[in-house]
């Protein structure tokens, strides 16, 4: 959860806990303050009024929430040209009061003066209006600050409220507005207020979070103090920089629900439709769970609105609608201005990061999707539709572009970046909705599926002719005479969709555009697999319906072809458009065989598209100087000798070109040997270049050779030897990069050097892709390693005599990850971490450096957006710890962090600097220096409690002369379980340069600068500099919402510093998570309480018991007077199916209530024995499969059992009985994962009487049932570790059913039909509560007992059904509804009987 969301959650929970609704002006009282009350409040000085008829200076009356609270203000009122600025502060909580904007001033006598206009009231955190007016961007800034105004009523009959930044929490029923006057603006609205254009007001973001009860709604009619009526309509404006955060049920007729499974909102609620006006802002749904189908249907409801829809919790999802923005000012609509041509742009990473499901462009708007090579976009809708524009209704516009325009230069930035590109992006999962407008592909290649083009009045342009496009501003976007080329590649086996009548062809192929696909997609007869068909016959109608050809190329990518077919295909296409042509891509390729190496091999134009495979009898071969060779593979035929390939000065060898995979170099067809007598080596001379892998990035290549780059000149102009790993997964035997040479691993490539890599003097290894499982890398003087991709499993060693060795992780363009194994030696090296910040990307976008060593003998600088992990072997440990800090990660939060998993020693060569203000290009003087430890502003030192193992229990040990400096705005975070009362020292062996009077975590550790787990606080003795002493707060006090068992376990496990118990590690993980400051009190309590009773939280006992009682009762009812007549039935075999759906909401748990939906299906096979006088009986075997899903998790139920049943009939009296034994298996996935079996035994007896009247009968009945529920002991897993042992008690339930049934019989010649109904009341006698003991075996005191309900207190059951029987068979259909205060259920049954 992000920092802002934490603060909001804390404010909401604090308000609820404090009973914030008590005494507030209620929403149901539309005249919350009467005229007399207003006059009284005015007389008491409890009304704050700003009434001005003129305000030429444009100055506000400024007031704070604290002042309003202290002065007991009941109403703040602004009238005429008055302006009240409510200056908010983070954590503000307003008392009950009313805020009013109006055109009516009321004096002490109740006289009303009506002004020409209403006053304005603004809300902001830290606004400087003089700077704002002067267009100074520092006048107002974005902030994560939160103010709780749930007790405040906002009323505006004229004028309005303006919320400019930060978050305000309010209630929907507390906001009132007018119709056309009296608004609540979320975010600035420059289209109504042109003076806001370009100011800080237009650039900051505001969030209104509405908290609501189940009966909350938006307001409509209301009255003011004087009784004047108002009807609020569209008075809450969600503007472009505004966000409205709400639960879905407040906006739509059907909300997502607790489980997030509702898929259709159906429509907006009438009150929400009336109150809300979306002007380009964001609707944020804060439901705990959600699904994509629901969000897409929400998008359909807002089809013509300029809006962004996103989720707050769970996996991020969003939908973006881009629509026209047009200024509105005095005199109405302003002329269409290019500056308000609405433009947005996205990248594939933006779409993935924000979970974007749909981008929809409307009217006078334009969206660009900036692609790069290798992009793969998961399911996404791109849609263009009609909206307002200069010429009336216009369609939106989307551009697909390979490149990185600098959009800061304006919308026409694409002019200078639209260039030809061979980049390819995978858009197979993208659907294109072409309702009205255009989607333009202007360069590169995208792969798509034909079925994903939805026709309308818009079109998808493959390349653009500016004068041919109807949307405005086309030359403005693209310029004139653009000469790029673009390819739309149709892949997969789908077909174009059938075009509806009246729709346009969705795809338009223009000059310089290419449409590529299999021939069968375009022509009536395609090329066969062997390419032998010579006649395409005609164009497919489905193709011509969907594609308009204005020129360009149709390219067939079949594997084989013939010239006759190709010529006929050209004729068919050119009949449609003379400017178009048909070509083949790379069909029918052949390998060339060479007896020996040739200087001309692979150098011609044909080789670049169809590279040959070379075979040679020579022992050693060399490339031709000055030439580029494209070679698939090289095979040496003599397996008795060693072989060498020399890449000569000025030549290039592209080995493994195109689609080559497997061995790139072979000897007599096999992988070369590692034996030096028969091995292969590759020498690259100065000025030569060896490239491995030029094909698809998914291909795997192997070059089992030692690659050596010859030492080259040090001057920039000198020719250098180079090795480039271009794409795919490439394995080599070893690499030796000589002086001044370079090895590059491109972004689409992975490299493994089995015998390691050596970087000689000034050699460079640039990792843009990945290096993995390379045994070692040795670095010598001046060598540099740049990891802007990922490097793992490589033991790096800096030579003992080396100097000026540099390692960088990340740069100005992207993040990097370097994970070192044990044994790496970086002595005297300089290590620098830095990736650029990216909007909306959290710690997952940071550069990561991991070194398991516990010694720093190198200079480590942790710059912006970076995390260094020392003393651990992975990046996840630090990430998990930093997410527990409760601090946001980013420019407004923590900017750089160091995590320690072990005690750290910094020797004389070592230095550390953690400073998020440092970026690539920082001077040497700004980086870490030997003998110094520095923590800059907004830095974080995080450490596990286990790391305090140094001298005097210290965390870091220096040399004695090591100098440490800590910024006052730096933080220390401690994770894990701390020893109560132990004295910890942060730093040992250092000299502090920080002024002892300055408060920081070194000089004066406190709650302000040290982040502790929830159940710890500082002892009073912890005042000394650098010393930490903790005391553990009892969990019941720190977290009062958790149950006693959970608090016992948290306290006991926290007190245990070690244990051999196999449950200990899991229990410690549990304690760390539920005391984690990152989570809300509500979530911690839910997790802790559910962990104590995991199976009951998901209904294991209840579901199994319900199913058993239902099955046993049903077996008994086989002999009921409602189902049989007075005649004794012959023996028969029967089969019954049942389906039950349950909604449980109210069964008690220890510390909460169970809330889940359940369902199960049952199959019962039974046999009725032949009757013996008055006695009848039978036996039934049942199997049940079911599941439950709720707020605490999931459970799968499997159950089987047997019931024996009998009846004794004496006239109209019938005595029934049954006995059954069942076993249920449960597999729960709650906060704790657990499996447990339940053994259930049940006995039941029922007495019934039949009272007949003609063909009808009434059957009253009463019974008694005893059911014993015995759950076996089981273990629970927290995370992936065993944590708890559970020992449930055995529970006996006694239920008393009493009711009356009705039966009606009709007969025909062969069949007897019966209709029956029954109404019963089932009382549970002696209690429904059971209990279990939960413990952490081996930890003293880590145990407790929890109590919970396993059945309903009392239940009303209604049943009805019908059956029909003949001499040989019968069938039965029934329905049953059950209701109790804790649950509701619906059951359906179907039964077949066969008589003998």
Plain-language structure description:
The structure is a single chain. The chain is mostly beta strands and 1396 residues long. The strands form 11 sheets. The protein has a 19-stranded parallel beta sheet that branches. The chain is globular and about 115 Å long. The protein starts with a helix and ends with a strand.
Structure in a nutshell:
With 1396 residues, this protein is mainly β. It has 21 helices and 99 strands.
What's the story with the biggest beta sheet?
A: 19 strands, parallel
Q: Report the structural category.
A: mainly beta
User: Count of helices?
Assistant: 21
How confident is the prediction overall: mean pLDDT? Answer: 86
- Helicity, in percent? 10-25%
Q: Could you give the distance between the termini?
A: 67 Å
Show unreliable segments: 1-31, 326-340, 468-472, 588-596
Tell how many strands the DSSP assignment holds.
99
Radius of gyration: 38 Å
β content, as a range?
35-45%
Shape: globular
Keywords:
42% strand, disordered N terminus, 18-stranded mixed beta sheet
List the helices and strands and how they pair.
Blueprint: H1 3-17, H2 35-43, E1 47-52, E2 61-64, H3 65-70, E3 75-80, E4 83-88, E5 97-102, E6 104-106, E7 112-114, E8 120-125, H4 129-133, E9 146-148, E10 152-156, E11 160-163, E12 166-170, E13 175-176, E14 183-186, H5 200-203, E15 206-210, E16 221-223, E17 229-231, E18 236-239, E19 242-246, H6 248-251, H7 270-275, E20 276-279, E21 282-285, H8 292-301, E22 308-311, E23 318-322, E24 328-329, E25 332-333, E26 342-347, H9 348-353, E27 356-362, E28 365-371, E29 380-389, E30 392-402, E31 424-426, E32 430-434, E33 437-441, E34 444-448, E35 453-454, E36 459-462, H10 474-478, E37 486-490, E38 507-509, E39 513-517, H11 519-522, H12 541-546, E40 547-549, E41 552-556, H13 563-576, E42 580-584, H14 605-609, E43 614-616, E44 620-622, E45 628-631, E46 634-636, E47 643-647, E48 652-655, E49 662-663, E50 665-667, E51 680-684, E52 689-692, E53 700-709, E54 722-725, E55 728-737, E56 742-745, E57 749-753, E58 757-759, E59 764-767, E60 770-772, E61 776-779, E62 784-787, E63 790-792, E64 795-798, E65 806-809, E66 817-819, ...
Parallel strand pairs: 1-3, 2-4, 3-5, 4-8, 5-10, 8-11, 9-12, 10-13, 11-14, 12-15, 14-18, 15-19, 18-20, 19-21, 21-22, 23-27, 26-28, 27-29, 28-30, 29-32, 30-33, 31-34, 32-35, 33-36, 34-37, 36-38, 37-39, 38-40, 39-41, 41-42, 43-46, 44-47, 45-48, 46-50, 47-51, 48-52, 49-53, 51-53, 52-54, 53-55, ...
Antiparallel strand pairs: 6-7, 16-17, 22-23, 24-25, 29-30, 79-82, 81-82, 83-84, 83-99, 84-85, 85-86, 86-87, 87-88, 88-90, 88-91, 89-90, 90-93, 91-92, 92-95, 93-94, 94-97, 95-96, 97-98, 98-99
Helix pairs in contact: 17-18
């Amino acid at each position: 959860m992000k920092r802002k969301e934490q603060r909001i959650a804390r404010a909401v929970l604090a308000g609820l806990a404090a009973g914030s609704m008590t005494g507030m002006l209620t929403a149901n009282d539309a005249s919350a303050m009467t005229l007399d009350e207003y006059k009284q409040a005015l007389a008491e000085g409890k009304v704050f009024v700003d009434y001005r008829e003129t305000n030429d200076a444009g100055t506000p009356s400024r007031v704070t929430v604290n002042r309003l609270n202290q002065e007991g203000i009941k109403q703040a009122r602004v009238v005429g040209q008055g302006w009240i600025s409510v200056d908010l502060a983070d954590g503000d909580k307003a008392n009950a009061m009313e805020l009013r904007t109006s055109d009516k001033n009321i004096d002490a006598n109740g006289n009303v003066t009506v002004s020409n206009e209403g006053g304005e009231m603004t809300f902001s955190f830290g606004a400087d209006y003089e700077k704002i007016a002067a267009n100074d961007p520092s006048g107002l800034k974005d902030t994560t600050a939160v103010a709780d105004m749930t007790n405040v009523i906002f009323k505006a009959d004229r004028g309005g409220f303006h919320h400019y930044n930060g978050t305000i929490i309010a209630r929907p029923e507390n906001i009132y507005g007018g119709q056309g006057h009296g608004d609540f603006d979320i975010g600035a609205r420059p289209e109504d207020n042109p003076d806001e254009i370009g100011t800080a007001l237009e650039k900051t973001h505001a969030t209104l979070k509405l908290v609501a009860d189940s009966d909350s709604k938006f307001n409509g009619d209301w009255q003011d103090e004087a009784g004047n009526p108002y009807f609020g309509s569209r008075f809450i404006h969600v503007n472009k920089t505004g966000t409205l955060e709400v639960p879905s049920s407040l906006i739509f007729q059907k909300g997502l629900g607790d489980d997030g499974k509702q898929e259709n909102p159906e429509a907006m609620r009438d009150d929400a439709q009336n109150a809300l006006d979306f002007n380009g802002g964001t609707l944020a749904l804060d439901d705990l769970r959600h699904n994509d189908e629901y969000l897409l249907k929400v998008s359909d409801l807002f089809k013509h609105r300029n809006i962004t829809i996103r989720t707050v919790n769970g996996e991020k999802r969003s939908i973006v609608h881009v629509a026209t923005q047009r200024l509105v000012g005095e005199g109405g609509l302003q002329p269409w201005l290019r500056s308000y041509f609405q433009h947005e742009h996205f990248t594939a990473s933006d779409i993935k990061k924000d979970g974007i499901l749909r981008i929809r462009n409307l009217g006078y708007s334009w969206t660009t999707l900036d692609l790069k090579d290798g992009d793969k976009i998961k399911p996404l809708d791109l849609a263009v539709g009609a909206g307002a524009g200069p010429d009336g209704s216009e369609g939106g516009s989307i551009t697909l572009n390979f490149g990185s325009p600098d959009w800061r230069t304006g919308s026409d930035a694409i002019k200078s970046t639209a260039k030809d590109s061979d980049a390819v992006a995978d858009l197979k999962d993208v659907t294109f909705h072409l309702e009205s407008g255009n989607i333009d592909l202007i360069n590169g290649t995208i792969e798509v599926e034909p079925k994903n083009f939805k026709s309308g009045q818009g079109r998808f342009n493959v390349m653009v002719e500016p004068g041919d496009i109807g949307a405005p501003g086309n030359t403005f976007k693209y310029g004139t005479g653009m000469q790029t080329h673009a390819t739309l590649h149709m892949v997969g086996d789908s077909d174009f969709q059938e075009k509806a009548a009246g729709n346009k062809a969705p795809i338009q192929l223009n000059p310089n555009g290419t449409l590529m696909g299999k021939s069968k997609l375009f022509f009536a007869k395609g090329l066969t697999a062997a390419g032998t068909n010579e006649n395409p016959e005609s164009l497919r109608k489905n193709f011509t319906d969907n594609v308009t050809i204005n020129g360009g190329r149709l390219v067939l990518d079949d594997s084989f072809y013939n010239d006759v077919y190709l010529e006929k295909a050209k004729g068919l296409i050119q009949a449609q458009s003379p400017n178009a042509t048909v070509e083949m891509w790379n069909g029918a390729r052949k390998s060339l065989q060479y007896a020996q190496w040739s200087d001309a091999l692979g150098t011609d134009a044909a080789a670049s598209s169809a590279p040959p495979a070379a075979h040679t009898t020579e022992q050693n071969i060399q490339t031709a100087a000055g030439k580029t060779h494209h070679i698939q593979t090289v095979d040496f035929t003599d397996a008795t000798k060693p072989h060498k390939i020399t890449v000569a000065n000025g030549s290039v060898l592209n080995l493994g070109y195109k689609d080559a995979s497997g061995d790139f170099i072979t000897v007599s067809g096999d992988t070369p040997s590692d034996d030096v007598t028969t091995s292969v080596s590759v020498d690259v001379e100065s000025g030569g270049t060896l490239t491995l892998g030029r094909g698809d990035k998914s291909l795997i290549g192997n070059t089992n050779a030692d690659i050596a780059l010859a030492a080259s000149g040090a001057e920039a102009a000198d020719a250098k030897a180079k090795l480039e790993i271009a794409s795919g997964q490439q394995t080599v035997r070893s690499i030796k990069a000589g002086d001044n040479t370079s090895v590059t691993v491109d972004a689409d490539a992975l490299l493994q050097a089995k015998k390691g890599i050596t970087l000689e003097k000034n050699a460079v290894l640039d990792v843009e892709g990945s290096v993995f499982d390379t045994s070692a890398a040795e670095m010598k003087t001046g060598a540099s390693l740049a990891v802007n991709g990922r490097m793992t499993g490589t033991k790096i060693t800096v030579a003992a005599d080396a100097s000026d060795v540099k390692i960088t992780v990340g740069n100005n363009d992207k993040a990097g990850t370097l994970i070192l194994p044990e044994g790496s030696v970086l002595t005297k090296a300089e290590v620098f971490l830095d990736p650029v910040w990216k909007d909306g990307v959290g710690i997952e976008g940071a550069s990561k450096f991991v070194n398991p060593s516990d010694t720093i003998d190198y200079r480590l600088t942790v710059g912006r957006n970076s995390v260094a992990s020392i003393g651990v072997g992975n990046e996840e440990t630090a990430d998990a710890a930093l997410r527990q800090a409760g601090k946001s990660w980013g420019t407004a939060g923590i900017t750089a962090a160091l995590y320690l998993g072990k005690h750290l020693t910094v020797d004389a060569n070592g230095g550390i600097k953690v400073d998020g203000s440092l970026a690539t290009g920082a001077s040497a003087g700004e980086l870490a220096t030997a003998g110094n430890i520095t923590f800059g502003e907004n830095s974080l030192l995080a450490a596990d409690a286990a790391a305090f193992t140094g001298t005097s229990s210290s965390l870091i040990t220096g040399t004695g002369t090591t100098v440490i400096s800590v910024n006052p705005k730096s933080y220390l975070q401690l994770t894990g379980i701390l020893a109560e009362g132990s004295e910890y020292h942060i730093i040992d062996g250092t000299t502090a340069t920080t002024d002892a009077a300055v408060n920081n975590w070194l000089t004066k550790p406190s709650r302000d600068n040290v982040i502790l787990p929830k159940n710890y606080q500082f002892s009073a003795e912890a005042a000394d500099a650098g010393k930490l002493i903790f005391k553990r707060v009892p969990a019941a006090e720190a977290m009062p919402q958790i149950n006693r068992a959970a608090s016992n376990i948290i306290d006991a496990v926290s007190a245990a510093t070690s244990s051999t118990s196999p449950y200990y590690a899991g229990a410690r993980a549990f304690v760390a998570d539920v005391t984690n400051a990152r989570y809300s009190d509500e979530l911690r309590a839910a997790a802790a309480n559910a962990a104590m009773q995991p199976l009951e939280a998901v209904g294991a006992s209840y579901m199994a018991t319900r199913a058993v009682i239902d099955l046993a009762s049903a077996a008994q009812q086989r002999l009921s007077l409602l189902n049989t007549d007075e005649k004794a039935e012959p023996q028969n075999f029967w089969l019954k199916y049942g389906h039950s759906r349950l909604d449980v909401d109210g069964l008690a748990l220890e510390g909460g209530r169970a809330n889940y939906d359940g369902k199960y299906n049952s199959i019962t096979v039974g046999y009725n024995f032949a009757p013996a006088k008055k006695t009848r009986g039978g036996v039934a075997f049942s199997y049940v499969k079911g599941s439950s899903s709720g707020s605490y998790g999931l459970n799968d139920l499997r159950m089987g059992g047997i019931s024996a049943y009998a009846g004794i009939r004496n006239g109209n009296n019938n005595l029934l009985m049954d006995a059954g034994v069942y076993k249920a298996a449960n597999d729960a996935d709650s906060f704790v994962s657990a499996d447990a079996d339940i053994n259930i035994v049940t006995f039941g007896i029922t007495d019934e009487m039949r009272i007949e009247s003609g063909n009808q009968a009434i059957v009253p009945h009463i019974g008694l049932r005893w059911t014993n529920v015995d759950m076996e002991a089981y273990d629970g897993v927290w995370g992936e570790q065993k944590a708890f042992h559970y020992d449930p008690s055995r529970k006996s339930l006694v239920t008393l059913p009493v009711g009356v049934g009705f039966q009606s019989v009709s007969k025909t010649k062969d069949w007897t039909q019966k209709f029956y109904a029954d109404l019963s009341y089932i009382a549970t006698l002696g209690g429904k509560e059971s209990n279990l003991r939960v413990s952490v075996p081996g930890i003293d005191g880590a145990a407790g007992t929890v109590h919970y309900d396993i059945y309903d207190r009392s239940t009303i059951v209604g049943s009805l059904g019908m059956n029909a029987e003949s001499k040989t068979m019968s069938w039965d259909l029934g329905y049953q509804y059950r209701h109790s205060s804790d649950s509701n259920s619906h059951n359906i049954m179907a039964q077949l009987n066969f008589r003998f």
